[in-house]
Design goal:
By secondary structure, the chain is an alpha+beta fold. The strands form two sheets. A three-stranded antiparallel β-sheet has the order 1-6-3, with no helix packed on it. A three-stranded antiparallel β-sheet has the order 2-5-4, with no helix packed on it. A hairpin with a 3-residue loop joins β4 and β5. The N and C termini lie far apart (116 Å).
Amino acid sequence: MKKRSFSRTLGRSLPSPAMVVACLALLVALGGTGYAAIKLPANSVGTKQLKRSAVTGVKVKSNTLGGTQINESKLGRVPSATRATSADTATSATSATSAPVSRLEYASAVVAVPAGGSVVTRGTVSCAAGLSATGGGAKMVDPFNGFVADTNPVGKTGWEATGYSSIAQNMTVYVICAQAATTTP
């Protein structure tokens, strides 16, 4: 029987360097997948761990963002509001207590304001029968020498203004009058 040398026998039982590298690559690949599959504890990933632009709109749960998280200037026009900038009529009531406007008128009255600066002049204007005041105001012909001190509604159908002037001039008082279409609750 022949004697075999120990080194020759041992050399045949060791894997080749290529086999060692292949096995290491397999272990690393399997280990990385196993590590990624581990479930992370709740609240363990926060702002510091996320890269910029890592969370996109697709990754955000629907209806979870509010006004403070959204930059409204980057939003486009809502499809149902495309006519909002050019709408000229109201077509339906929103509740039993509101109705579309069926008639709108403006009325005005000119009031003479005497010179003197300390004389209070009051002017009033009223809506036509069946209309209600919805707003109003006043203006002086020469606002550098006179001013409107106050404007306010008078009941449900009129508007009044108070003015002073250092020169004799006119003050015009305006009222916006409307009639709502009838509604049934």
